[in-house]
Amino acid sequence: MNRWPPTTTLALQARGLNADLGGRPVLHGIDLALPAGRWTSIVGPNGAGKSTLLRALADLLPHQGTVELQGRRLADWPARERGQRLAWLGQSEHAADDLLVWDVAMLGRLPHRGWLAAPDARDHAAVEQALRCTQAWDWRHRSLGQLSGGERQRVLLARALAVQAPVLLMDEPLANLDPPHQADWLTTVRTLVRLGHTVISVLHEVSMALQADDVVVMAAGRVLHHGAAAQPETQRCLERVFDHRLAIHALQGQWVALPVLTPFESHLRDPHAD
Length: 274
Ligand SMILES: Nc1ncnc2c1ncn2[C@@H]1O[C@H](COP(=O)(O)OP(=O)(O)OP(=O)(O)O)[C@@H](O)[C@H]1O
Known about the structure:
The protein has 274 residues and is α/β, with parallel strands linked by helices. The protein has helices at 50-57, 79-85, 101-107, 121-133, 149-162, 179-194, 206-209, 232-241, and strands at residues 10-21, 24-35, 39-43, 64-69, 72-73, 86-89, 167-171, 198-202, 214-219, 222-228, 246-251, 254-259. InterPro entries: AAA+_ATPase (IPR003593), ABC_transporter-like_ATP-bd (IPR003439), ABC_transporter-like_CS (IPR017871), P-loop_NTPase (IPR027417).
């Protein structure tokens, strides 16, 4: 039987993490140990604090408490080394519309390049591999502003992949992606994990989140549960945190979350009534 938590090294560890937004506490003393070489999904209702937690883990947000990346406090890593080890894909990221797709992906190589140094062959190879992986290679000469929402998301994903970091944090990476590209993303994540990378993603699609090795369930700025996706305790916690408005079923060797419909009086009024 598989034991959980797995006895492995940690990619990221948070201790006593608190964060405020707009003067309001949003994260409340979060302790979290995220194992290396696994894919962890962070799931919870709207406003639970998932994005805030991810941003705090990436040190993109002022916070109290400590975060360690590969056993060393974030603040103690030289910026460049940290940038090589921790890649980030944010939610609805803004990037300059006039930048070419190639140049956006090349931004992922900045932590690997010397000050004002031109990209070398390794940078070119990493960018090409990332753009091909997200099937954005054919648009490399187009500007970001000429792309649809999903195409743009694939370029931003390529930028994160081009870093070739051992740890990847992704907030809503599936936003705007059609089903084939969601499936491609899944394949990419599985491949990265097989190669020893750590992936931590915030996902709204619970069925997709259940494909991960582990799931962190959040509500109201706290971690309610952290366990293997296949564990019954994890799945019951997910059903609970969404007020039993979804039910998790086994289907063809995968876990799927289906909506639970309850009869309720509609807030929509029939304009022809009366
Ligand atoms: N700039 C801000 N100022 C004040 N409060 C904020 C700000 N940004 C977010 N919040 C609040 O912080 C809480 C956590 O937000 P966060 O975006 O981390 O939640 P989330 O779990 O990622 O939500 P969602 O599933 O809707 O993306 C929410 O209650 C939200 O209203």
